[in-house]
């Protein structure tokens, strides 16, 4: 039995982290039995979530977990794709994880209202005398990483405009297909779903979410993926939420 370590339910999502969501959806795609446990990043071999324990072998980082699944269980997440399509899927995954993801981070962690509503509560269990200091330090570190990512160096509206160009690229790639690369889900769909659901969750208000809602094929895609991989989760359809 594989054990997947993640943050758990929160922010109107079945899993707070888009990277944990990516791995969980890929485990579902591969039809591998697993159980899920809550953990914090320091417990991971790489200091980040997700990580898995597969029969005593710890594997951290969602991309390396995918490689582990493909190697150990012989599952090809991109089965049916040509070599060129596999390259395109990898390029979209890198765009999502190194650009779209940081836009999500900005909306959650840098925006004061969203930080207070969401990530600030990660520290509710900390001793009262240093709870606020831990919150401030964590927000500062994330904001610093947001700056280093490149997006945080721009004016607030400019960073959203850049992120929307990536959302536009995803919308064009999806078109009227069911999934990014065709009519069958593949590995990059797990990545895209995790990030897009994180942006579009009705839990947070943000300019990024408002702009993302302008792409109806992306909102329908998130609803479709949620129905397929988390049918038990009480998800409000995005058009209804809007």
Automatic annotation (TrEMBL):
**Any one Gene Ontology molecular-function term assigned to this protein's record:** transferase activity
Which superkingdom? Bacteria
Q: Where is the GST N-terminal domain?
A: 1-77
The taxonomy runs:
Bacteria, Pseudomonadati, Pseudomonadota, Alphaproteobacteria, Hyphomicrobiales
Name of the protein this chain belongs to:
Glutathione S-transferase
Keywords assigned: Transferase
Is Protein biosynthesis there in the keyword field? no
Q: Does the keyword Transferase apply?
A: yes
- Provenance organism: Bradyrhizobium centrolobii
Q: Which InterPro entries match?
A: FAX/IsoI-like (IPR026928), Glutathione-S-Trfase_C_sf (IPR036282), Glutathione_S-Trfase (IPR040079), Glutathione_S-Trfase_N (IPR004045), Metaxin_GST (IPR033468), Mito_Protein_Transport_Metaxin (IPR050931), Thioredoxin-like_fold (IPR012336), Thioredoxin-like_sf (IPR036249)
